[in-house]
Amino acid sequence: IEQYLVYGNPIKQSRSPDIHKIFADENNIAIDYQKQLVALGDFKTAVKIFIAQGGKGANVTAPFKEDALKLADTLTERASLAGAVNTLTFKEGKIYGDNTDGEGLVQDLLHNNVTLKQSRILILGAGGAVRGVLLPLLAQDPKSITIANRTVSKAEALCENFNDERLTACGFDELADQTFDVIINATSASLSGDLPPIPTSVITNDIACYDMVYGKDDTPFIKWAKAQGARKTIDGLGMLVGQAAVSFSVWHKIMPDIHSVIEQLRKAIQ
Ligand code: ATR
């Protein structure tokens, strides 16, 4: 039976083992998938031990995604541009690093019937979460992606790094006269109950509002968007399932259906 695990610190909260087991059952594949708490500084050793035990692959969550990037012998383009690895594959003595977060977001947006092709996308935030999703989003052929951030220089640095004419950077106050089709909140503001200071004028009736964070209740951003009249609001639970699904497809060459797992998890967090 093939062995997989997810590394993190903390790790108790991780739902990856449950998600991967459901995908495996649905596709008649036998896997063993565990979670492992790793002490800071012990990541490399933990991976080497798992490889020696015959481990086939691992997911990586905070705070080890950059350690995983450094440890990989080979990186996919999306992992190297993300500057982070969340999926490791161990094969013939080599460590392959990938990042499925951005594709997980894309899968969830498409699953929610959000049109990305030729759309004007606004991303709030310019941290690691944004860097991780830009390449997969650009691959969906949007008209433009505007990155708005509290610290504008960080948004500008991201645009320079990706060097794509569809990308622009700005501050929140510059959004007042602009119109978008999709807004993705990728700031960590929701985690502390805060809201990025964006003008209410960006919320038009038919805009799709996505928050990368999820919880039992609506996130502050989703509450706010609904109050401004947004009809389509989506939280980040599906992105979590989506990144797992893409990891699963990297390992098992089958893209699982995310729909039923999202519903099961939604019930489990209520
Ligand atoms: P992550 O890996 O989750 O992206 P990060 O790299 O620390 O985490 O980035 C956090 C992002 O949330 C940044 O864009 C940050 O803005 P700054 O670059 O100006 O710091 C943004 N952020 C955090 N708290 C915020 C708040 N209260 N209002 C607006 N933006 C916030």
List the helices and strands in order.
EHEHEHEHEEHEHEHEEEHEHH
Rough outline:
globular
Structural class from helices and strands? Answer: alpha/beta
CATH homologous superfamily placement of the largest domain = NAD(P)-binding Rossmann-like Domain
Percent of residues in helices: 25-40%
Q: What number of domains?
A: 2
List the ions, cofactors and other small molecules found in this model: 2'-monophosphoadenosine-5'-diphosphate
Please outline the major beta sheet: 6 strands, mixed
Unreliable segments of 5+ consecutive residues: none
Radius of gyration: 19 Å
CATH topology of the largest domain: Rossmann fold
Tally of helical segments: 10
The average pLDDT score comes to: 96
How far the N terminus sits from the C terminus, by CA atoms, comes to 33 Å
Report the sheet-strand fraction. Answer: 15-25%
| Strand order, sheet with most strands | 2-1-3-5-6-4
The total strand number stands at 12
Which architecture of the largest domain per CATH? 3-Layer(aba) Sandwich
CATH class of the largest domain reads Alpha Beta
Walk me through this protein's architecture.
By secondary structure, the protein is of the alpha/beta class. It folds into two domains: 2-99 and 238-269, Leucine Dehydrogenase, chain A, domain 1 (Rossmann fold, 3-Layer(aba) Sandwich), CATH 3.40.50.10860; 102-235, NAD(P)-binding Rossmann-like Domain (Rossmann fold). Helices cover 38% and strands 20% of the residues. The strands form two sheets. Strands 2-1-3-5-6-4 form a six-stranded mixed beta sheet, sandwiched between helices. A six-stranded parallel beta sheet has the order 9-8-7-10-11-12, with helices on both faces. Strand 11 (208-211), helix 8 (220-227) and strand 12 (232-234) form a beta-alpha-beta unit. Helix 5 crosses helix 6 (128-138) and helix 5 crosses helix 9. The two termini are 33 Å apart.
